[in-house]
Amino acid sequence: MCEIYVKADPALYRKRRRSLRVGGVVTTLSLENQFWDTLEEMAAGEHISMAQLISKLYQEVMDYHGEVSNFASFLRVCCMRYTREVLPLQAAARQAS
Question: What is the mean pLDDT for each group of 10 consecutive residues in the chain (97 residues)?
Fold first, then answer.
């Protein structure tokens, strides 16, 4: 069972730090490469830059909840929800057309 997981390229789970402006403040986020790749894919689907996507997600979570205690974890969850919920819907829509 674990073979599919343990054969993952170590580069995918290596952390990378990026500095960007979120909510008008320059901050540094540290995420695993696979999450950065997923955020890039999400941004491309929205036709915006990854920095714009991250800023938009930050503003939306702040508007909805008023705070976010761990923004990096929030972004990881966004990526998981994208791969589990959004991608299957997009694939189904392509098959239906």
Answer: 86 96 92 98 97 96 94 97 93 88
d(CA 22, CA 4) in angstroms, rounded, equals 35
Can you give the pLDDT at residue 93? 87
Q: Looking at domain 3-45+68-96, what is its CATH homologous superfamily?
A: protein bp1543 (1.10.3990.20)
